[in-house]
């Protein structure tokens, strides 16, 4: 179970990551931040995102990992957090699986 502070930090990171990726991306694909998870000690965070069209997923993931340091600077400027977590980016496969399940249900 996550604490109130963990939830607040995760929501802030997700919102700022969405803004940052929208501003910095090349706009060949739509990158949507789906959620962020923060460790209980608030030292690590993982931002999950989905990409449309799917053929750009790997290039978007490489881009996000390449700009991690820049995102950390953005987080530093836009938040008032005393300690910044180390942030990693991952594709949200859960969202992809949910979409496939919805598609299968519609076919029935």
Automatic annotation (TrEMBL):
<dbReference type="InterPro" id="IPR000238">
    <property type="entry name" value="RbfA"/>
</dbReference>
<dbReference type="InterPro" id="IPR015946">
    <property type="entry name" value="KH_dom-like_a/b"/>
</dbReference>
<dbReference type="GO" id="GO:0006364">
    <property type="term" value="P:rRNA processing"/>
</dbReference>
<dbReference type="InterPro" id="IPR023799">
    <property type="entry name" value="RbfA_dom_sf"/>
</dbReference>
<protein>
    <recommendedName>
        <fullName>Ribosome-binding factor A</fullName>
    </recommendedName>
</protein>
<keyword id="KW-0690">Ribosome biogenesis</keyword>
<dbReference type="Pfam" id="PF02033">
    <property type="entry name" value="RBFA"/>
</dbReference>
């Amino acid at each position: 179970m996550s604490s109130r502070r963990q939830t607040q930090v995760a929501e802030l990171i997700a919102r700022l990551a969405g803004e940052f990726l929208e501003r910095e991306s090349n706009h060949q694909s739509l990158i949507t931040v789906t959620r962020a998870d923060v460790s209980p000690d608030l030292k690590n965070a993982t931002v999950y995102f989905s990409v449309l069209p799917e053929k750009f997923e790997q290039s978007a993931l490489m881009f996000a990992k390449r700009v991690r340091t820049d995102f950390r600077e953005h987080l530093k400027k836009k938040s008032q957090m005393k300690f910044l977590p180390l942030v990693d980016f991952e594709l949200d496969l859960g969202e992809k699986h949910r979409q496939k399940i919805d598609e299968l249900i519609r076919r029935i």
